[in-house]
Amino acid sequence: MKDGATRADDIFLPFETPPAPGEVIEVAPGILWARMPLPVRLNHVNIWLLEEGNGWTAVDCGLDSPETRAAWEQLIAGPLRGKPVRRLVATHGHVDHVGLAGWITARFEAPFHATLAAWLWARVTYAGRDEPTSAHALEHLRIHGCDPRHIEAYARNRGPLLKLFYEPPRAHLRLKNEELIEMGGRRWKVVVADGHADEHASFVSTSGDVVIAGDQILQRISPVVGVFSGEPLADPLTDYLASLERFRGLPDDTLVLPSHGLPFRGLDVRLDQLAHHHQRRLDIVFDSLDQPRTATECAHVLFARAMAEGQWYLALAETLAHLHRLVTIGFVRREIDADGVIRFART
Ligand SMILES: [Zn+2]
């Protein structure tokens, strides 16, 4: 099949080999794809460099590690062709996307464009990076039936990426939903959506040829949609599923640029796959409630492999997201026992 062609029932990958760190691939006129390493199982994040007359707009930048800084030095010395980064645009505030934002914006005296929630998320995460795990966060795990050994491990270490933030920019230029922004000779509509991160920004070119999707729409994996202790009653899955509908109706050959995985065509097919994936998980978790169960018990059904492989923290968060959506639509209710432990039951 030729580049540009898409089977109606499949997604198509026009670039099967990603760029090495410090190198780029031009994925559309004026848009370069670079990759930054991550020190976790999901070992990379994609960033996008859009050529302006006098410099570059970068969308996301990676986290603060020696490997990411080295990759940036290589980009600056080579593919950026001596032109500076004129602005840094954030898709969202997670460390793998904007951990190095303060370093880039200081080095190039470039402004930082982000939604308010993305900027605050980065600032707050950075400010709290050395704080001990809060009693509240541990209690959240306990009331959802978490294994005490897991809670103890979490108390000691909240995760490998937390400290890989350079101090985020002190100011931001605010991205707002539906506004238009010029980048790299294209005009883009900003689509601000919740579900994976609060106020996540994606960018849809007004000509419909390219979507910079961020983590909202990924190529192979589904983005983490989870409930965490900071908003224990959140229903992010309802927000996430609603957000997918906002990307419908673009041409079949629209090139989608996700933050992880490969660029792809076949956006509507991928939106169907993601919606179906969550619907299947909603069915599984509902079926598991033959009696009232904690979210951890449900996670063992929904994410058996992840739980066995030690990915219990995200498995619990994602299970809770599915349970909370079932509560929202009236299929399930929460029951709280005398010890404060929460069980979910069919209504
Ligand atoms: Zn990400």
Question: What is the H/E order?
Answer: EEEEHEHHEHHHEEEEEHEHHHHEE
Radius of gyration: 21 Å
CATH superfamily of the domain at 25-129 and 165-270: Ribonuclease Z/Hydroxyacylglutathione hydrolase-like
In the predicted model, the low-confidence regions spanning at least 5 consecutive residues are 1-7
Main β-sheet, in a few words? 7 strands, mixed
Strand content: 15-25%
Structural class: alpha/beta
Helix content: 25-40%
Secondary-structure arrangement, i.e. CATH architecture of the domain at 25-129 and 165-270: 4-Layer Sandwich
Q: If you average the pLDDT, what whole number results?
A: 95
Label the overall shape: globular
The CATH class of the domain at 25-129 and 165-270 is: Alpha Beta
Q: List the ions, cofactors and other small molecules found in this model.
A: zinc ion
CATH topology of the domain at 25-129 and 165-270: Metallo-beta-lactamase, Chain A
Number of helices: 11
Beta-strand segment tally: 14
Measured distance between first and last alpha carbons: 50 Å
Strand order of the largest sheet: 1-2-3-4-5-6-7
